[in-house]
Structure formats: structure tokens, C-alpha cells
Amino acid sequence: MNKIETTPGSMNKSDKQWVVDILKEDNLKLAESNHLGTYGRAQLGPATKVLMWAMRIYVVLSFILIIAQIYISLRSNG
Amino acid sequence: MEITETKPRIVEPGITTEDIHRAKDRVRIHNARARTGPFRRLFLLFFLIGPGILVMLGENDGPSMLSYAATGATYGIGFFIPFIVLTFAMAYIVQELTVRLAAATQRGHAELIFERFGPFWGRFAMVDLAIGNFLTLVVEFIAIQAGLGFFGIPVPIAVGLGLLLSIFVMLSRRFWTWERITLGLAIFNCLFIPVANMVHPNPIEIGHSLLTWLPLPAGGITLTLLLFIMSNIGATVTPWMLFFQQSALKDKGITPKDIPYAKIDTAIGAILAAVFAVAALVVTSVLFKHHIDTSSFSNGPFAAAQFAQALQPYIGKFGASIFALAILESGLVAVITISSSSAYAFGEVTSSAHSLNRPVKEAWKFYAVMIGGALLAGLIVIIPHAPLTLIVLVVNVIATLAMPPALIFLILLVNDRKLMGDYVNTRTENMLAIGVTIFLVLAGMIWGTVTILTGLGIMH
User: Fold this and answer.
1) Which residue of A has its CA nearest to B9?
2) Residue A3: per-residue pLDDT
3) 59-98 in chain B: CB under 8 A from chain A
4) Which of A26, B168, B364, B454 sits most deeply, having the most CB atoms within 10 A of its CB?
5) Of A51, A73, A63, A72, which is closest to residue B402 (Cα–Cα)?
6) What is the reported pTM?
7) Which of residues 96 through 115 in chain B touch A, CB cutoff 8 A?
8) Who's near B320: CB < 8 A, 6+ residues apart?
9) Would the ipTM clear 0.85, i.e. be above it?
10) Where are the domains of chain A?
């Protein structure tokens, strides 16, 4: 397997086209273009919105539990 | 038709080194697909395996393997052998979702959460993962130094060696190289098998327990049993696995055509990890058989050298050494995989370059998070009087509590037809995934509650 050099400079057209063609064949975008265009925000149904709010409450409770765990451990170690 | 490689020498704007390396990796796969003959599928599998095996064997980290060892020493061969197999079956069900997500969307997990559910949940996922992963890295270095401690290697040297090796792998600057080296390290998780052989287990006894789940743990349902069940579950499915596998598959350039092989990769990983986990349990079952009390052993990763020493009368110095080396390996691979999952998530949420196919100067933030996290975690272990026991306790709580949101987002994403297209979850897949999610969420909540109540003195 030939080693690919990556030193910057000019690249001939056919080599550049080779990279593009290989990735295009697999429907893979160029790394730079991966950040162009997003799926956008999901349209959440009522049940999912309730779930999201339940998760927010869960996150707050989790923080409390973690702090409680740290406090308990520090207390038991004196 | 075979595709012949040309040799692009130079990078032009618009095409990055990441693209070139990925194109080179895809050429291998195209050529494997173009092959004829009986070994065509094997060649294809060889090039497509990686993230699935790495995520499963990466989860067989130091604390997990010691958790299995503690289980074997406390309960011997019986109920927990099929239970461990069941937990890895659940892990497969969960991880398979990330395979389809990665292939269908060409996005990492944190990136998708950020895009579809907004910056709050995207950043929460990243920060939550980063904190949990960082504390886990500390625990892995504890396991590494405990494993090498069996050989009398001082803590700073043990941690230094672990850091050197893991950073060397992280700096391979080529996803393929990084993947293959880490796979080579991960396969040493199999060291638990020859050690298990040294205790001369009865295969009929193991087979019987696999089929019948017997004998059940003595003493009925106790708090100790509950804690062992929870720790075994926690040793199998954790949040970083979801983020890691999806991001690694995206970095590898997996496409929908590759999904069947990526699923096989994940299944192979689950099977190997289950076998090695059971082997770790079988090793210490000899302690159970000889009524050796291990309840006084140190908590979690600290116990590596203690288990090795306790096993020495039964498997000799050589066997005990292999056991300690296996713990070292499990910690090392976890450092590599967990560090990369944090770096991927950071890069995805901050829209900065995040690929193992990029040189350091192009993706310095990615490498800074990956290597910096490991360095800092290692340094904490070296610091005298660092609160390592507290970190071990807290990391288990965090990993348990972080699991439900991670799983819920995963379920929501794989049911999102706009993302998944034809690869959206079927009804059967949803039943399995939601069933596993409910089980893991309930198990985690019970464990967290029991831990807190025990700490408060309300439960004993």
C-alpha cells in the first residue's frame, strides 16, 4: 500500500478528482463540507416534549444525588 | 473492477488529509468488494471490523474486569455466568443502534443530539460525557498502576508507562493505524482465558450454569447481591460506548452498505467481551471454592494486585502475573477508547476538526482534549493523598445516572425518520431497545438509590 504524502503544495487535478470520486461513490462528503447543512431541529410531539421536561427534572435530581454522594463519602472519611 | 490507487502528494484547500486517508481506506473496501472467491466476505470483514470490537473490549476495562473477578470470588460459578452473557446481549442491542445511526447520518452522536435537540442538550451531553469520562480515566490509571503494582513497579513509573503507550497510539494520525494498534492491544483481554484454564474449571459445571442459571447465589436476595448485579450491569453498558462507537464509525467512513458487517463487528465484540468476562469470573471462582474471604479487599480497581496475590497459591506466580498484565491491558485500552470518545464529542459540539485522520496541527483541539484528559487523569493518580477512593465511588454513580438520558436520546434518534430514512427502527427493534432501556434505567435508579441510602445509614 503506497504511503500518502500530506505535505502542502500544489496537487494535480486527477489526484484531487480521485479523492472526490472515491468519497462520492460512497456518498461520503468531504470533511470540510460535513458541517454545511444540518438536519435542523427535531419537531417534537407533545409526548416527547413531556419527556424532555422530565429529563430536565431528572438532570437536576441527578446533580443533587451526586453532590449527596460526594458529601456522604467525605463525611464517612471524616 | 479493481480501483487502482494513485498517489496524491499534496493537499489543496477543500480537500483535507482526513479526506485523503478516508478515501484510501474506502479503496481497500471497494477492492475487497470487487474480489471474487470464497474469502471475499472475510476480506471485507477484516477491513470493516474495528469500532464494534473496540467498544466492547474497551468496556472490559480495569474496574469491570475486577468487578467480574469480585463476583467470581464471592459467588463462584453459577447464576452470574448467564447473567453476564445477558448483559452483553443487551449491550449488543444498544450498540447496534449506533451502527445504523452512524451509517445513515454520517454524524457523531453528540453532533446529532446538538443538531436535533438544540445547544442545551448537545452541550449537556458533551459536558456530562467529559466529566464521566475524565473520572473514569482516573479509575483506569488506578487499575493500571494496581496491575503493575503486582510487579513492584512504583506508581509514577506505572502511570508514566501507561501514559506513554496510550499517547503513542493516540498520535498515530491515521484512523486505520490507531484502530489496528488498539485492536492488537484489546485482543490481549483474552489473557483471562489461559488464567481461567489454570484453575482447572469444570466445563460441565460452566455449561450447566449457562443453561439453568444455577446455582443461585446463596443467602437469597441481599443488599450485597443487589450491588453485585448492578455493578455487573454497570460494567457492560455505559454512556461513553454510545458516543464512541458512532463517532468512530463515522471517522472510519462507514456507509449504509457496510451496516451488515458493522453489525457483525459489534456482535463479535460482544461475544469476545462476554467470554473474557466469564473467564475473569471463572479465575476467581477458585477463591470461592477454597472459602477465601475477599470482602476485605480494596474497592474496585485498587484490588488488582490483591486478587493476583490471592490467586498465586492456585495458579502460581506465572498465572498471577498474567492476571495482573490482563488488568493492565484492560485499563490501557479503555484509556485510549474513552479519551477518543471525549475528543470526538468535543469536536462535534464545537464544530472543530475531529478526526484521527487529521494531523495534530489541523485538529489540535481534538488532540488536546484526547491527550490532555489522559495526562491530567494520570497525574491525579500520582498525586499523594489524592481522593482516589472518592473518585471511584462517584464515577460509578455518575455513569449510572448518565445512562438514562443517553439511552433516551438514542431511542429518539433511531426513530427519527428524517435522520434514518429506510434504516429507522422497526417495531421489533423498538421493543428490544425500549425494553433494554427500561431495564437499564430501573437498574441504575435502584442502584443509585441503594448506594445513597446505604451511605446515609438508612439501609445496611
Assistant:
1) A5
2) 43
3) none
4) A26
5) A63
6) 0.91
7) 105-106, 112, 115
8) B150, B308, B309, B311, B312
9) no
10) 13-76
